[in-house]
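Newbie here. two chains, one complex. Structure please?
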Amino acid sequence: MLTTLATLAGLALAQQTDTTVPVRAGARLEVNNFGGDITVKTWSKSAVRIAASHSSRDHITIEASDQVVRVKSEGRGGPSHVVDYDFTVPAAMALSLSGVYTDISVEGSEGEITAETVQGTVKVSGGAGNVSLKSVQGDVTLEKAHGRIDLSSVNETITASQISGDLSAETVNGDISLVQIESANAEANTVNGDVVYDGTIKDGGRYRFSTHDGDLRVSVPDKSNVSVSVSTFNGDFSACFPIQLTSSKTKHRFGFTIGSGSARLEVESFDGDIRLCRPGQLSKDKERDKDHDQDHDQDQEEE
Amino acid sequence: MSDNWTNRLSEYLDGDLPASERPALEVHLQGCGDCRATLQQLRRVVARAQGLDDSPPAADLWPAIAQHMGVVSLDARRARRRLSFTVPQLAAAAVALVLLSGGSAWLALRGRSTGPTPQQAVMDRNPVITTAGTYEANPRYAAAVADLERVLARGRSRLDTATVRVIEKNLGIIDRAIRDAQSALAADPANSYLNQHLAQEMRRKLELLRQAATLTGTRT
């Protein structure tokens, strides 16, 4: 009964905002939401639809000019309560989305995206030009973007797939997975986690992947031209294909060249293993490791 | 990237590279993203250093860092406005830049405060987020870290407890990495990988502290 009454009270207080504003080409959308969701989808109209579900005690403010549509929520005398936004925007519209207790989701964008949250996930499909996604306590996921990509988390994982362009990914306590990447400049580093890069090694490109306590798995396509520098302190190195060392300072620091060596690949793991394979082999390796881990767990349980 | 070119970039930047060699370097730069990035870093360092010449900061963070990283004195270089760095030195310089910007963030945030409340004073004496004992060898770095930690201590009440826990946990992870690198370097001081790794983790710690300090200015 109490639950029913609470639900009815909640319904009574719930309020919907639903409005559409026309926008010119080149305008950007700026949203700040203290808590709740920000969901963005795209359409072919030159307009922004703003649908928000919020408490009647909160007020949604929309400021629209030729350059920007700015949306924010305010409570009575303080931060707003949970507001769930659903935006529909022109595909090319630049997006600047931020929040604190906020999950951010974008689908189908063909414009620049900046998304930042503290406790929440960032999940984006699409994006072009500068794409910057950041969360402190949430996963960051990006797919089908091209341009200059900057992905950052602190305590969670970063996943990127079907990306083309310059790519930078950094977290502290989490894995980084970069697959189906077409880049001449890619960098990923974490302190406590694994790094996987499955993508192109372009002539003249620059690639750097590092972790402190984790494994690195990097794909090197057949017929690549790359100078590889390997550094570990406590880890092992292996490759799915034959290599011939060209320089070796110690068994943990050495280099080798494939083809003309015009690209540069640096792989560094202080306390983990480094493995180079051909594209597509990395996922097989991962599955094999997963099976191995499961077998190991079963063995331990049986013991 | 060729070490030869790396060592010539500062000459190029200073205009001291012989005219006969400039075209070759410029051609090389067009095809070498790494060299361009290094040159860009050098420009930033030079710009910062020149700024410091004109308006000396209250606390110059560079000498202690340079000493810690085994870098020769920068003072003489500044005097003749000629800067020559190797890659390990650039790694140290990157940390220095973060220190400077971290200090700026601290100053900006400190400017907002109206003085410590009794509760804040207690937190100042007992900072929640602390990593004391890691950087005895580098007092200025330690001071910069301590400054940012104080900002966090003051702003702790504005942060969600879960966020505080996450920040503490991740600072601990970075500190462990720094200690690992320091221990490894003690056994192999000439290891360039370990030097760069240590510099990277030190930079990362300052960036996380700065990020956390910025969060205290937002509502969580």
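Moderator note: The longest helix of chain B spans residues 161-187. Chain B has ten helices and no strands. Thread marked as resolved.
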